[in-house]
Amino acid sequence: MTAFRCASAVALQDVAVGHQSKLAFSVHRSHQPHSPSFSPLFTSIPLQQRSCAQVLDMTFINYLSLLQAAVFVGIIYCIVLVTRRLYFSPISHFPGPKLAIATFWYQFYYDVILGGQYVWKVRDLHKKYGPIVRINPYELHVDDPDFLEDIFRGPGSHKRDKWEWATKGLGVPGATLMTNGHDLHRLRRAALNPFFSKTSVRNLQPLIDAKLDFFIERFEEFHKSGEVMVINHAFAALTNGMHEA
């Protein structure tokens, strides 16, 4: 009986110890609410939230990286472009303001912001830099009468195509005046040559004289009345009158 009681006491003690260890283990695990193996219902939402946040973070980082790369490429492009215009252009040896050589914004400021004042600025640039001035990245302006023969040579001696950037601004592509190619322009211009011959001009002489007489009469009327004449309107009316006649 004594041995049986001892065995029973040991067995009860083992059962109690087992229950205590299970209880302690369950209490220890109950303090881990975010463990996915024990509370999936409550832990699935935080995990999903963390996944969305990670996706948003990665997306933001990707866009930020693309923006940084675009800015970097843009800066490198501007540096290379300005360096090429300043030092490696075929007309880089001609003088002119560095800002005008590097970018069109210099001309834009005088022509757009100040309202067509670049022509007067070019006059001042000639006083500073001489008879030939580089007025933008692609253009030279010449103020030398002795150089006219080199620029306006006959069609048989030298062929020059017009600069597309200068002709497309008038908004009439394909017109005779806006034709860039030398040979095509010469072909179209030939169809108009009879209207500019000496015979055609002489036939229009009576009309031109009549319009000029009327033009001078208007000058005298403004002179007697003391009224100011807008001269550009007057000349526009004179040329339009000849054209319509």
Description:
- Helix 10 packs antiparallel against helix 11.
- The chain has helices at residues 2-30, 40-88, 98-102, 105-113, 118-129, 148-151, 164-167, 182-192, 198-203, 205-225, 231-244; strands at residues 132-136, 139-142.
- Residues 1-45 have low confidence and may be disordered.
- 67% of the residues lie in helices and 4% in strands.
- The protein folds into 3 domains: 62-152, no CATH class; 162-196, no CATH class; 199-245.
- The chain is elongated.
- With 245 residues, it is mainly α.
- It starts with a helix and ends with a helix.
- A hairpin with a 2-residue loop joins strand 1 (132-136) and strand 2 (139-142).
Let me know the largest β-sheet. Answer: 2 strands, antiparallel
Read across the widest sheet, the strand sequence of neighbours is: 1-2
The residue fraction in helices comes out at 55-70%
Using only CA atoms, what is the Rg? 44 Å
Average pLDDT rating = 78
- How many separate domains make up the residues? 3
Category by helix and strand content:
mainly alpha
Q: What's the total number of strands?
A: 2
Assess the beta-strand content as a share of residues: under 5%
Oligomeric state as shown: single chain
Rough shape?
A: elongated
Order of helices and strands: HHHHHEEHHHHHH
Instruction: Give the end-to-end Cα distance, rounded to a whole number of Å.
Output: 146 Å
Treating each run of at least 4 consecutive H or I residues as one helix, how many helices? 11
Residue stretches low in confidence (pLDDT < 50, at least 5 long) are 1-45
